Amino acid sequence: MPVAGPTWTALIWTTGEARFLTPEHLLSVLEVDRHRVWGASLGDRGDTALPQDAVLMVSLVARRSDLNGDTFVERYRSHAEVARTHHGFSAYRQNVVRQNVALQNVAGCDAISEILLATEEDWRNNFYATPSAAEAVGRDVARFLDRAGTSSTLVRRFPG
Hints:
The chain is of the alpha+beta class. Helices cover 21% and strands 27% of the residues.
């Protein structure tokens, strides 16, 4: 995928009726179905099992324009087994967007992937499990993901 800075500057996870920002500060409000595929709870409150130097890769996933929502979700969910085989992640969560309320004129996303790696070094050296894994993953994500519309960034975990 192309390397470019994301068009967004913050991603905030909340539950319930959080009222700390006004609409002029927000691009979109996403309601998602959270699905832990494997591994740690990815920073949920009370999780003490994650290393302090863990990094989280967050991808705002856009679906291919020729796919309907159901086909996208089926292919995105089935990607979990490909990821389990070919990546060196500590944890992986797939969040399918149920509702996207775009408050400003911006493109939305269809899912949010959370990929946890124990360290930044693991992100650099163990993202793929084998030298041929990148090709296998690339073939699979091409079935559902719009590369140009998808953006990813790394975030650090801050103790709460």
